Amino acid sequence: MKITRPGDVPSKSVDPAYFTGTVRMDPLTAAEAPGRAVSILVTFEPGARTNWHTHPAGQTLIVTAGCGRCCAEGGEVQVLRPGDVVWFPAGERHWHGAGPDTAMSHIAIQEAVEGVTADWEEPVSDADYGA
After folding, report:
1. Which of 13, 70, 73, 82 would you call most buried, defined as having the most Cβ atoms within 10 angstroms of its Cβ?
2. Is residue 13 one of the residues assigned to a domain?
3. pTM above the 0.90 mark?
């Protein structure tokens, strides 16, 4: 058994090449062999969002606070609220983040496949974000 308590693992800044706006990551779990799942609490300030990206084994988001947005390529922007659970299948191009005027936090769960959890692409335009 392993218990991790708040403050045991320091918060991390995100790579600005993959995000728009202010975003903080708080690692929750890291896979130990033979496992591959990792989880992170991600907090987006108003207007902040990921770039377009995919995951080799899919991704689950569990919204914990605030009001956010997400969109899969070709779909409509969806509003996210606490308690919402979102599943993006492997290879589905998507983005997620805060609302224009509200922060949003979610737990992101994904698997590392050959050390890769995400394949990052270009920033989400304001038009695609729906600001």
Report:
1. 70
2. no
3. yes
